[in-house]
Amino acid sequence: MLRILLTHHHKSPKDRFPSVEGEAVAALPFLEAGHLPLILPALPLRPEDARRYVEQCDAVVAMGGWDIDPNRYGQPYRFKNVELYRHRDQDEWLLLAECVRQRKPFLGICRGFELLNVFFGGTLFQNLPAQHGDQILHMQDHRDYDHFGHAVSLDPGGFLHEWLGGQENILVNSFHNQGIQALGQGLRVAAMAPDGLVEAIEHTDLPLFGVQWHPERGLHYDENARALYHGFLQKCLGGAAPPTRSL
Asked: Which of 96, 28, 108, 22 is nearest to 61 (CA)?
């Protein structure tokens, strides 16, 4: 049985007693496969806390939520749409650093996908319509969970091409106002939207993966969402390599 650590949206950075606010469906694919999803509490982590969490778990999954602080990728605040929670930035940064050091699998979903890119030196569009264009609607109505938003093309040889049975194009939902501007070092593109926006990435040497869409919201109607989780779990079951040097 695998132990999967899930990070979720923190309810409000202004709360005196912060809490985790996540969709229960995020844990569903792991429970249904007979594994144990564990929810990270909304408390500031120390580096030693992150080390112990990752040591005790088999993988980390970083879910969606508010935007990443632009200071982490060397940019000022340019748009009013940027909503931040720096405590969560720091927690997930430490956890991802430990996944790298311990060579544990990591899956970033939406915000988690963006965090993976920024961690390796990439940058983000802070406002897609203003900086990238609006040829494609990347922010669906949040009540419209049961429909696809747009297509993405899968890169041959990438993790999604492998996990989804060699498909070249799939449909995905879309609930994001930011996206990858410059790709981080050591990362490769695994999927792209028709407007040229990167939609999935992976590390070239480590078991680190990210998708811009929300597969957990499509589990009840999208077989590719279920296949994505199955592929990630198979990667987790493959075991971890010896730790690399400390970052």
From this structure: 108
